[in-house]
Amino acid sequence: MAKTLAPYLDLHTHHVRSLPETIQLRSCRLSEVSALPTHPSLYYSIGLHPWFAEELHEDSLPRLREALGVSHVLALGEAGLDKATQRTAFSDQIRLLRAQIQLSEELGLPLILHLVRAQDELLRLRKELHPDQPWLIHGFRGGIDQARQLLRAGLYLSFGRHFHPESLAAAHAEGRAFLETDDDATLSIQSVYQAASEVLHIAEGELRYQLYARACSLFASLPLYEQ
Ligand SMILES: [Zn+2]
Known about the structure:
eight-stranded parallel beta sheet, alpha/beta, TIM Barrel, 36% helix
């Protein structure tokens, strides 16, 4: 009998596609949560993103807390820090990230992070707050030095279309890499797995198994895959 393969896991996407053998973690804003489709292979993360001033304020926190209580929500995010955006003040980003870190700890949900040019500030917050929940940087494009610094601090890194091979290899060796399509509607998660399996010299089926097992250890409500 042929062995069934573990599903592909798209750790962070903004597009829902109907794909066989794929589990998707769709990243949502608060304004999107009223109409979330449900499907057995579709999960959500919800957070206050540093790009959206209309949501990035204290008044959103009670609604966020409520939205995170729904089943099929696996993580808080994306939240984060972005020094390249003009849309919100950096001081507001820091304040609302702090609040979301507290919420992720309180609700026992991993935190998915958007991080642009603010690695030192993020690591400072981590040192100060000592979170128990895992932190995952999505769309990581940084080089090996940046990757090593984040890995040393215990973070997970998720990679999409553009990545530095050494950073992916370092994160995978630590058991802390994931793959994603983010907001790229033309990118398939299969092609990201293919690129990663070439870089890592691991057969794609084995990579599917490893990343899915890794995800199950972080997200308790994912269905277990039985080989
Ligand atoms: Zn995103």
